[in-house]
């Protein structure tokens, strides 16, 4: 399967995809038109921001639980994510929540969620927005 031209690795790279960075991917050019890929990227981020860990009042995107998002040329969205702790009570449910949220994005042909704990999550992955919401600034 060919990879799309844009790749998000963590919160900062996701911001780059949204137009706020200057890195260039080594991936081959995508068959998806740039304006469509940009729209899908914004919609995917918006969908991820609707998923919350029930014990934390911040969405999983701002918490920094999303490590990588890739949109392949066939529009399959692959997401590498983690949890705040391996023993998280919603560990079995959260991947399904992410799949359902991102699967509703127009243009996505499907969603594959990969759980990883390497590297382990730590609070430094949170956005400033999450830090303010949790009084951790």
CATH architecture group name:
2-Layer Sandwich
Biggest sheet architecture: 4 strands, mixed
Q: Strand portion, in percent?
A: 15-25%
- The shape is globular
Kindly identify the CATH topology. Answer: GMP Synthetase, Chain A, domain 3
- First-last Cα distance: 42 Å
Please identify the top-level CATH class. Answer: Alpha Beta
Note the total helix count: 5
Using DSSP, what is the number of strands? 4
Rounded Rg: 14 Å
Average pLDDT over all residues: 83
Relevant CATH superfamily: Fe-S cluster assembly (FSCA)
- Describe the strand arrangement of the main beta sheet, using strand numbers: 1-2-3-4
Question: Ranges with pLDDT <50 over ≥5 residues?
Answer: 1-26
The ordered string of helix (H) and strand (E) elements is EHHHEEHEH
Number of domains: 1
Helix percentage = 25-40%
Describe this structure in words.
- The structure is a single chain.
- With 137 residues, the chain is of the alpha+beta class.
- It has helices spanning 10-20, 34-48, 60-63, 94-103, 128-133; strands spanning 7-9, 66-71, 76-81, 110-115.
- It has one domain: Fe-S cluster assembly (FSCA) (GMP Synthetase, Chain A, domain 3, 2-Layer Sandwich), CATH 3.30.300.130.
- 34% of the residues lie in helices and 15% in strands.
- It starts with 6 loop residues before the first strand and ends with a helix.
- The model is unreliable at 1-26 (pLDDT under 50).
Q: What topology emerges from the helices and strands here?
A:
Blueprint: E1 7-9, H1 10-20, H2 34-48, H3 60-63, E2 66-71, E3 76-81, H4 94-103, E4 110-115, H5 128-133
Parallel strand pairs: 3-4
Antiparallel strand pairs: 1-2, 2-3
């Amino acid at each position: 399967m060919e990879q799309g031209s844009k790749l998000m690795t963590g919160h900062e790279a996701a911001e780059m995809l949204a137009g706020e960075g200057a890195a260039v991917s080594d991936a081959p050019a995508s068959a998806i038109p740039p304006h469509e890929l940009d729209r899908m990227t914004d919609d995917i981020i918006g969908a991820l921001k609707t998923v919350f860990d029930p014990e934390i009042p911040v969405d999983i995107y701002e918490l920094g639980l999303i490590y990588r998002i890739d949109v392949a040329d066939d529009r399959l969205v692959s997401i590498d994510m983690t949890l705040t702790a391996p023993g998280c009570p919603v560990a079995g449910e959260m991947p399904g929540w992410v799949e359902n949220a991102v699967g509703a994005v127009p243009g996505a042909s499907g969603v594959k969620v990969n759980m990883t704990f390497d590297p382990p999550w730590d609070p430094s992955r949170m956005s400033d927005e999450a830090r303010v919401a949790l009084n951790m600034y």
